[in-house]
Amino acid sequence: MGGTTDRGSGIAASLAVEPLHRLFGRCHRDELLPLAALVGVAHRGVGLDLLARNVARATRRLARHGLLSALFGGGDGPDWLTVLRDLTGNPRLGFDEIPEAEVAVVRRARTESWAPLSTEARAELWQQLGMGGTPPDSGEEAMAQAESSLGRAFGYVLTQAHKQLTTSKGVPVFLLVLLPFAFCLHPILILSIVVGANRALRSDRPRLVAMVMHVARLRQIVLRRITVGFVGSPSTGKDAGIRAMFGIDSGNISPVAGSTTTVKIQQVPGATALYVVNTPGLGDVVQSVTDEAKQVLSHIDVYVYVVNAEGGVQARERADYKACRGSGKPVLALVNKIDLLRPRDKEKYLADAREKLGAPPGDFLAVAFDPMPELSAGPIGLEAVREWLVRALVSLDKDPTELPLLAAVPEAAPS
Q: N or C: which end of the chain has fewer CB within 10 A?
């Protein structure tokens, strides 16, 4: 069960204690649709908050055990901890162990379903787990190898792989039809119907496991996947910032205006699920990119808006920054290339830029990602940016340990 979380009872516990609808409400709407389909919840025209509540209610109701509870029990069914205690056979399972227990259920399901898979399906799942070579014949061996190789990323990768999960046919209809009339019949017949239907419900384990697999997938997304969007006009230094912060060299660091004209999406090497998006703006660009890029843009967790210190804040930049703020996500405004400002002009320029953008003081920093060598030995202000990112991610219940160490470049003190 390793790789699910290594932060004790912090964020993982907060995600566990919250009701399912709170967890679902932290997802993006499109991510919730497969579970909605599994539990039979309509989604057309339904907003995220109501959809999250409806899916949570249906999930818990379908997780009930026993005919009388399913048909006559009130409320929304058992709490999620009770469901997991039953599935794992651990009556002492605690709230802070829920993420780990969900991954354990998924691991066991993958182990049990491994042998019946075709060679092609087994190879596909093995590839989705990020594993190379020929997959083992044993499901237990396959899971052990994947866990050993993936380490702390195991829980996330396992729950995201092979999302077409098993459903079941549910309770035989004839049993439900007979039940209203059963009380007019002989007690033995009543007992037979109840016992038979109860067994039918308990045989619905594949659907219950499938629900846990969906919930585990969503919880791992909420906890671990992080998408940082770098937004700004061309030649503001977004590529240099991504290189300095995450060690990704796009080969596109250029002083020529317009060198970045498309949306770029990159996964940070060595991270479980940390993505960086580089986009020149949120206006015309969003209308021209692919559907896949639009989906990624809609999944950005935090924005880093970059302004060039060599020029004033333009109307287009104010509009793009306002669009980022309008998303409801944390937004950090950065004035880059401050090494090029005269010391006597710096304070006045920064005050003017912050006022024009309308940026809160705590969400506004000055940096130099790629300063002139004769002016600075290394990037300026990186640590302050990273500290802001950590605070923003914690506020979103994300795991900030997903952020890599800053690139191994000596950082100069702000001048």
A: C
